[in-house]
# Entry
Amino acid sequence: MGRQNFTIWRVFRISFGVIKRNLVLFLMVALILEFPVNYLGIAFGGDEVASIADVADIFVRAALDSLLASAISYAVGCDARGNRADLAGMLTRMRAVFFPVLVLSLLFEAVPALPWFLAPRESFGGTFALVWFLGSWLVLTVLLWTAVPVAVAEGRGVVPAVRRALSQSKGQHVRILGMLLILVSALLIGLILEWLVGEGALFMFEQPGLAEWLLAAVFDLMLLVAMAVSYFLLDDPDPDPESVAAVFE
# Structure
């Protein structure tokens, strides 16, 4: 299934092309949906077990993330077919696949936060919680790299989308991890530069400023576009390495 089409370079090259053709629409949607996510006041930094407010916080984050993921996946699909996505089409698709994408988003949000729901932070230690958070997020993201695009493009439910994503990512984990680490590294470099010249506060520890909001939006945008492009590359039945890239260009 077109596995030879799937390389880190090809995914990023196509992703930048898709973003370039849809830059205004993508940035508008990403910035609008990322704004409330970054300003939600999550209380995981305290010593108590996560509260009802934290549960609500995670749910709202997942809901907003699911809307953004659905919109971007739909737009990449339109681009792959030679069409231009519009806001009306995005909204229609977001509504149609809201539930399965919401459940998938909750999975990515809730599993890394489990230590804070099981016991006070001091019982686990900050190091354990951080290792669990990063490790579980990386594993889930690598294994279910194309789960959201599958749900959006094929209209599948949660379990079928997970099974399809696991099938697509089989044998591609190193490449996916490589892409993920490149994106995370770029985000960290941006945050460090902002910290050095800006307000001196990383957005995950204090209330974010405009620079962190923009960085988070761009990171999410790149991540979601790369996921959707990967779905089409891994789904291509034609072994010609240029066949899939051609539909994006």
